Amino acid sequence: MSAKKETYVVSARKYRPNNWAEVIGQEAITDTLRNSIEQDHMAHAYLFCGPRGVGKTTCARIFAKEINLSEQQGDDEDFSFNIFELDAASNNKVDDIRNLTDQVRIPPQIGKYKVYIIDEVHMLSTQAFNAFLKTLEEPPKHAIFILATTEKHKIIPTILSRCQIYDFNRIPVEEIVTHLKIITEKESISAEEEALHVIAQKADGALRDALSIFDQLVSFTNGKLTYDAVLKNLHVLDYDYYFKLCKFLYESDYTSAILLLDKILKLGFDASHFIGGLGSHLRDLLVCQDKRTVELLEVGQAVRQQYLDQAGVVNADWLLEALKESQQAEFRIKTTTNQRLLLEIALLSIAGLNAEKKKSNPNPELEAPRIKEPAKPAVIPEKSEIEIAEPKSGDAIAEKVVENDLPPEPIAQAEVIAPEIVEQHTQLASLVEEPAPEPQKRVSRNRDRRKPTTISLNIDKEEVEVKTVSISEVAEETGLAKMKMDLAWKHVLQKLEEDGFNAFHTIVRRVNLETDNADNILTIGLQHNVEEEEFGLHSSDFLQDLRRLTGNKDLQIQTEITEVKIESKLFTPREKFEHLAKQNPSLIKLKQDLDLDIAY
Asked: What is the pLDDT of residues 484-522, one digit of tens each?
């Protein structure tokens, strides 16, 4: 005869703790309750509060069983008749509480205490709470109440003041993983450690949720839990995507970052979950910057090594700025209607962090040219030797790198002269005894003729050639800035229109981005004082949004009022008719058909 097949029981019930030693992650609470029983210092009312699945009801049942076992009773005694469990979600009326208070008066037949466990106690109505107050404050000596809830803030203060409150914490990821490993060994299930870490992180500190996910994945994988199978079933974004994205952002490769974002969204991942995961990834990289905080990383060993490798490449300052951008995007993504645009702006802002630093300080080690011999008065170049091309509006000219102690090299392509070199030349000339005449820069006024050249300074018969960034590199950086401004401008205008700021939206949409954003200044044209007052009410938030979205903290707004002069003039009836007839010629035919005259 074949053996009878064992009835399947879910892991959350099968491996539910039956004593204090089996409770996971709540050592402080279990030690306190065990000591109160041993010392006979038990209160008459307890409140267990905390997230779901962390052991509140389990500890209440163990406590209810232990207090009667401590009375020198035999272990085979059944005290289940002394434990009463009430679901407040379905018994939340005044009559239900009155029935409970009537039962409390009856003493136990076996043991010393009767324990009343009220689960989800926050679901009781206000009238039921008030009816329960007197019994909860002064119950009979044999009665102990244990209230359990996930929402302590919904319980009235008069109930809280009558209970000993125990706050249950979320269970750490490592302890959940350890518990799952024990279960896999007992059930003979093959599981990768990285797969168990994903399950533990998905459970968010709730052991019951972790066991439910575990049972589901065991059925899905037929008892072979692999990392890829868990990611596929739980629809979790792989760590590799975040490592690649962070690499692109740190290298200012905004094109690859946007394409990777498009791939992630096409896989069906939610935008809010993606930006939240990016923030967590940046946080973990920041944690890995110091060996003392690496232990805060809740991942497996293989992924931990990936974090350590990438943390050695990126710097902490960049991570802090990137983390701020991601948190702002995560905060705003719940209220925006165009989530993809917001994500793209956030990624462009993060990708531009290093680009702006390289632009402002291309080589911090070279602060000034080194001169082997005392400097002599520099020779001021003639007019024909210096010609600085004035950039068009919106162009960004990078700073120069001065190469010292090297022979001049021919320049293969057209280059742009930076005005800062004249200032460096002045500082060098001031070191000699005789004052050198202040060099002057001449600006070409012909915007169409952009003739970038080089400049040579004769210093003690040694020629120092200044090399600058090529026009193609400037155009690339300018394209990033313009793209960021265009996206930010569209996003802000769209939000103004959605929020109902119609008057303010009408004013700011007059700005021409091609001509009004030179020198980091946006010019807003106003027609009268009423528009100026309307603009002043919202300009601060408007400017902060633009600065945040573009990453340009130097952006400013200026206003110009152009009053429209209206000449007051009295018009005769004939002039009025002629004016209307120009707009609607049918009036002339109407006047002729009806034989009308113009009144004077």
From this structure: 777 777 777 777 777 777 677 777 776 655 544 556 777
- Selection from 201, 224, 206 nearest residue 303 by Cα: 201
How many residues does this entry show for the chain?
Answer: 600
Beta-carbon contacts of 260 under 8 Å, excluding residues fewer than 6 positions away, are 241, 244, 245, 248
DSSP state of 562: -
DSSP per-residue codes, 114-183: EEEEEESGGGS-HHHHHHHHHHHHS--TTEEEEEEES-GGGS-HHHHTTSEEEEPPPPPHHHHHHHHHHH
- Of 36, 46, 92, the closest CA to residue 67 belongs to 36
Q: How far is CA 598 from CA 570, 575, 593, 595, in A?
A: 16, 10, 14, 10
Alpha-carbon distances of 356 from 392, 421, 481, 506, rounded to whole Å:
20, 20, 10, 32
Whole-number Å distance between alpha carbons of 535 and 523? 12
Please determine, for residue 254, whether its predicted confidence score (pLDDT) is greater than 50: yes
Name all domains of the chain by residue range, CATH numbers in brackets: 26-167 (3.40.50.300), 173-234 (1.10.8.60), 239-360 (1.20.272.10), 369-469 (no CATH), 475-561 (no CATH)
Query: Is 535 a residue whose pLDDT tops 80?
Result: no
Specify whether the CB–CB gap between 161 and 185 falls below 8 A. no
Contact 114, 142 (CB under 8 A): yes
Three-state DSSP string of 210-258:
HHHHHHHHHHHHCCEECHHHHHHHHCCCCHHHHHHHHHHHHCCCHHHHH
User: 314 CB contacts (<8 Å, ≥6 apart)?
Assistant: 246, 250, 285
Encoded tokens for 436: 């050198």
Q: Which residue has the higher pLDDT, 405 or 577?
A: 577
Query: What's the mean pLDDT in 263-272?
Result: 89
- What phi and psi, each to the nearest 5 degrees, are found at residue 48? -100, 120
Of 375, 359, 350, nearest to 281 (Cα)?
350
How much of the chain, in percent, has pLDDT values that exceed 90?
24
**Cα(578)–Cα(587) distance, rounded to whole angstroms?**
9
